[in-house]
Amino acid sequence: MDPMRFMVVSGFLGAGKTTTMIALAEYLNEHFGETAIIANDLGANLVDTNLTQTSGCNVVEIASGCICYQMDNVVDQLRRLRDRDGAQFVMSDIPGCGVGALDHVYHTLAKAHADQFTLAPFTVITDPERLRMIMPEKADINLPSELVYLLKLQLEEADLVVLNKCDLLSEEEIARYLDFLKTAVPDIPVLAISARERIGIAELADFITAHTSSLKNFSVRYDGEFAEAEAKLTWYNRRAYLKTNSGAAIDMNAVLDDMIEAIRMGLIERKRNVPHLKTFAIAGSEDAEGEGIDDFNKASLIGVDYDTEYERCFEHDQSSMRMIVNARAVCEARPLARIIDDALDEVCDRYGLDCQVFFTECFGMMDEGR
Ligand SMILES: Nc1nc2c(ncn2[C@@H]2O[C@H](COP(=O)(O)OP(=O)(O)OP(=O)(O)O)[C@@H](O)[C@H]2O)c(=O)[nH]1
Ligand SMILES: [Mg+2]
User: Fold this and answer.
1) N or C: which terminus of the chain has fewer CB atoms within 10 Å of its end residue's CB?
2) Are the C-beta atoms of 8 and 91 separated by less than 8 Å?
3) Which atom of ligand 1 is nearest to the CA of 199?
4) Which tens digits make up the pLDDT trace of 301-334?
């Protein structure tokens, strides 16, 4: 039998890495073999880990830094997933500002552990909205040019490019986007999917189980434009507990929606943006571990000019919720922290809520994550 397959999924903030990994894991579990996900990001209290766990997939977390810089930990986790859980396929994402995993992760594994792991194609997810920035129309979606550079760099690193969110495109548009990718990154295979609608997942699964990484040499200069892109970004993670002062159950979906709108307005006022703002909220108190997991709200905003997207909303009114907020913003750390504090205060006043904050971290890319 082939050694366990491992695949890294890269791609721009909010392109759909987590959604794609969940869709793939569900499919591979049924048609290929035991599959696990490593949820990787910077910092702690991560929406993506919580969301992935609700899908029923086998998920472990490598937080507090990109997998590129903790290879011993990655190898330990891979061995554990293989030996303890019988995993035959493991995939991990890297933070959405990341690049360089081909060099750091794939080449390290190929050099030191070639007999233990088969490296599936290094897969880069892209979404139509962000791709439009580098297509002939050069769409302006209010992101700085440094992030446009990051998007291009991520695509060039790929063994396989996946055009996600095809449910948002017509057949003609899909053909136009695929044509563009074939000229922008020639020699790199491209597949079109909708991770959310589970379209094209079987074809993607077939590809990543039948091919291996080309292990091309792709070294990144971290001091130039890449560092400038990182310098634009701030990571913000918060965990809080909110409950109504009256004890009455209320529509917590409205609370979350209003909070996200207030953050959006704060960013617009300061002419800043948030390539991905995610919230995950579960009904019930901090000590009600696991309870209420069926009733949760997961929201995403991929920029101040977009609508808030809900993968899931609370089905019932609630008197309390545990909430995680993750923002990956083009905004300096202090104003971002203030915007989120103000937004939380605003909804607490409006809905008569008491808020206990258990954890907050807010850091610039140049401070951490290496
Ligand atoms: N319409 C549509 N939306 C999608 C699709 N896949 C993902 N999304 C949405 O895009 C948003 C971001 O998806 P994620 O999977 O969280 O993206 P990500 O790349 O993991 O984001 P980061 O980890 O923050 O970089 C969410 O609102 C998803 O529901 C898709 O196929 N179609
Ligand atoms: Mg993600």
Assistant:
1) N
2) yes
3) 31
4) 999 999 999 999 999 999 999 999 999 999 999 9
